Amino acid sequence: MLSQVYRYGFQPFNQHLLPWVQCTTISRSHCIQPSVIRHVRSWSNIPFITVPLSRTHGKSFAHRSELKQAKRIVVKLGSAVVTRGDECGLALGRLASIVEQVSVLQNQGREMMLVTSGAVAFGKQRLRHEILLSQSVRQALHSGQNQLKEMAIPVLEARACAAAGQSGLMALYEAMFTQYSICAAQILVTNLDFHDEQKRRNLNGTLHELLRMNIVPIVNTNDAVVPPAEPNSDLQGVNVISVKDNDSLAARLAVEMKTDLLIVLSDVEGLFDSPPGSDDAKLIDIFYPGDQQSVTFGTKSRVGMGGMEAKVKAALWALQGGTSVVIANGTHPKVSGHVITDIVEGKKVGTFFSEVKPAGPTVEQQGEMARSGGRMLATLEPEQRAEIIHRLADLLTDQRDEILLANKKDLEEAEGRLAPPLLKRLSLSTSKLNSLAIGLRQIAASSQDSVGRVLRRTRIAKNLELEQVTVPIGVLLVIFESRPDCLPQVAALAIASGNGLLLKGGKEAAHSNRILHLLTQEALSIHGVKEAVQLVNTREEVEDLCRLDKMIDLIIPRGSSQLVRDIQKAAKGIPVMGHSEGICHMYVDSEASVDKVTRLVRDSKCEYPAACNALETLLIHRDLLRTPLFDQIIDMLRVEQVKIHAGPKFASYLTFSPSEVKSLRTEYGDLELCIEVVDNVQDAIDHIHKYGSSHTDVIVTENENTAEFFLQHVDSACVFWNASTRFSDGYRFGLGAEVGISTSRIHARGPVGLEGLLTTKWLLRGKDHVVSDFSEHGSLKYLHENLPIPQRNTN
């Protein structure tokens, strides 16, 4: 093979100065030099993908969200990740998943490198098999019997196992990467390859050439010749780190190659503030230099050379050299299939090493503060909670100029970036602030009898009484887009119900949200519960917030249908209250009043088309077609510049129809409306059940029997008769405000106000009662008497 290469005009140079390199596209057994590998480019049919991923290496990334920019990435696979539980053989399914993720990132235009263990385990499997085979042959020759159970397998020396396993391990990687049309090359190194300057330069050149040719280098220590590990005496600075395990090798390689990101996969989720598995153990999301003093390290993993302490030291060394590091679990069956891609996408996986501490608290700390503050809030007297809300209402009007100035900044920055309906939602005005203040005072009035209200009293037995009382849900996470007026509304409802609150607003309303949150905390301060309401200002992805199931009890999304769907999909173990779509219908019956119809349609569609309770589909009884009433509806819509989409049946009645609707299940959120024809009220109900979203649906008719049939049979959260869909609102219902409109069937439905943010608990008061006293031969009998509920003074 080398003689063939020389004929192309390449000259060899000091072979002994190079690490052992194996390129799977050329040969599996020859030592190839960097100058030789250049020729592979003309042989390979792999496309060179160019994606605009570049950054100047020097400083590590400060935030997880920046990891998406990582161009050059090293993935270190620990022994526990690569090997099976019996430490004898490889975890093939796990390896296949890792190779797939690395291939996906490589094909995005990134430069991927692997530092892998596994040669020892693979070799151990082969040698054990050979030993068992040879022993069984010898025994068969001597005794004529196969006594495998009595065979003693000697302890296998690790370096011999590595020598036996290297070729098989590389062949396996080659077969897996080939499935994705990606070439791989193996490089075996020792400590000398980094500390000898000439060898280090050769190694560097080889790696750069492989990356340039879109080849994935697979690097590991040459365990067949490596000396036994020495005690930790290095890792003290950027220029001194010994390669004595794959953790230190990965760190050294990452810094040497000016890598953007080092991903260290092990068999634990990351770093914990106490031993993993203990009751109080919490995963450390972000680890900063200096924090190692507060961390207690346990023993090393079940296999491999290094434990978590070695990983942390190597990670900090790489971080000091300008490479970002994430330590994560590569063995968990639920996450291993996407752990690498999740990390690169900036998701909250494992422990992220950063040199930049955030100015404020982390979202986990904010969750704890909201929990603690909410519990204090729930213990206040109802009058005290009402006083806080009244104070917030006063601040909204007193600080009007400052609020509108902040909102003006948001509007100026959003100009040209947001669609007109979203700009309208973002805008605040004096009238909006006045309406907000009125709504807040309504909430304050209704909060007098909310938390701690007795719903049921039962005498179980003599001197044993049971009560069911209302209590807060806990910590609410409310995620809202564009609408800053949502913040004081939701805050007031949380205060009235005694709930802690985490708020995550859209960046388009950052200035408005900031001042409104400061005013909210100012109001909370009058009774010392300032921390009960928290505004998340960190770069937390919504998906990461939805994973905080230990801190958040209920998620309430306020925004587009896509936002709600994304949150419902991302929330694991946390209930989500809300609706994914607001496809509201209005059915115009054959007995509808001409005077009422146009007013109701105009108000429902044109008053605020971006609202979730705006009309989206108008159902017309077929007898009304080509009547003056129908003509009036069409003329009004044209005047209001509403674009009409014809349903299939409606289009069939017309010679020249408007654009036919693409889907009857569409929320336009703008001056657009679908019109469809139905045969009768039952046909209208069937259409609503098939294409609606169970939000708000209306009938317009003068026939009371038809109206009552519609009201009883339409299965939606809000069903109206001769009223605009826009009445589906907490403020208009007299709830003061709402946290959203729920179309779910559990807990709360429709506009969710104060009552929807409460749950219950049971209080049992006894005197030395035990269950055995109520047995067949016991001395007590159950009474189960309903007791009167005491009336609370709400004045």
Automatic annotation (TrEMBL):
Keywords: Amino-acid biosynthesis, ATP-binding, Kinase, Mitochondrion, Multifunctional enzyme, NADP, Nucleotide-binding, Oxidoreductase, Proline biosynthesis, Transferase. GO terms for biological process: L-proline biosynthetic process. It catalyses: L-glutamate + ATP = L-glutamyl 5-phosphate + ADP; L-glutamate 5-semialdehyde + phosphate + NADP(+) = L-glutamyl 5-phosphate + NADPH + H(+). Pathway: Amino-acid biosynthesis; L-proline biosynthesis; L-glutamate 5-semialdehyde from L-glutamate: step 1/2; Amino-acid biosynthesis; L-proline biosynthesis; L-glutamate 5-semialdehyde from L-glutamate: step 2/2. The keyword Nucleus does not apply. Its EC number is 2.7.2.11, 1.2.1.41. Residues 71-329 form the Aspartate/glutamate/uridylate kinase domain. InterPro entries: AceGlu_kinase-like_sf, Ald_DH/histidinol_DH, Ald_DH_C, Ald_DH_N, Aldehyde_DH_dom, Asp/Glu/Uridylate_kinase, G-glutamylP_reductase_CS, G5K_ProBA. GO terms for molecular function: ATP binding; glutamate 5-kinase activity; glutamate-5-semialdehyde dehydrogenase activity. Bifunctional enzyme that converts glutamate to glutamate 5-semialdehyde, an intermediate in the biosynthesis of proline, ornithine and arginine. Can form homodimers/multimers. HAMAP family: ProA (MF_00412), ProB (MF_00456). This is Delta-1-pyrroline-5-carboxylate synthase. It comes from Pongo abelii (Sumatran orangutan).
